[in-house]
Amino acid sequence: MVVKSACAAGLALALSACGGAKQEETPAGGSAPADTAAPATAETTPATAADGAPIAFGICKSCHSIEKGKNMIGPSLAGIVGTKAGDVAGFSFSPALKGSGLTWDDATLDKWLENPMKLVPGTRMTYSGQTDPAKRKAIIAYLKTLK
Q1: Which secondary-structure segment (H or E) carries 133?
Q2: What distance lies between CA 58 and its chain's CA centroid?
Q3: Distance between CA atoms of residues 43 and 55, nearest Å
């Protein structure tokens, strides 16, 4: 029962992080509010949390530790860049990921973060993916700092 509760809590946390952006409502007067946001540029740097992780990495923390050897729902991400997929000590990976032959380099991580289930059909990672290339790049850069 404790395991079920822990899994349910982890799933609820992960799903709560998947919400979309809040839409602004049209005021009662009928006219839409003016767009006061600064225009986005191609070089916009994704925001970071107090711990230095990109904000987009927050959903990763729902299931993954950044502490070496500390596996959670997902494997520890410490030192993952440059390693073979499905090869973290003490974690039970899906046969699909273990047999994928992938190495976690920049290009593979980018494809994985964009859509893990498309890259490795049969993976147990149910994350739907990060569509924003700048956010994926920021996550990959952060993963490289985890030793």
Answers
A1: helix 133-145
A2: 7
A3: 17
**Global pTM?**
0.70
3-state helix, strand, coil in the chain (%, to 5): 35, 5, 60
The pLDDT-based confidence of 45 (bands split at 50, 70, 90) is low
Q: Which two tokens stand for residue 24?
A: 């602004």
- Cβ(80)–Cβ(104) below 8 Å: yes
Torsion of CA 54, 78, 64, 85, to 10 degrees: 110
pLDDT digits 0-9 by tens, 48-62: 888 889 999 999 999
Please say whether the beta carbons of 17 and 62 come within 8 A: yes
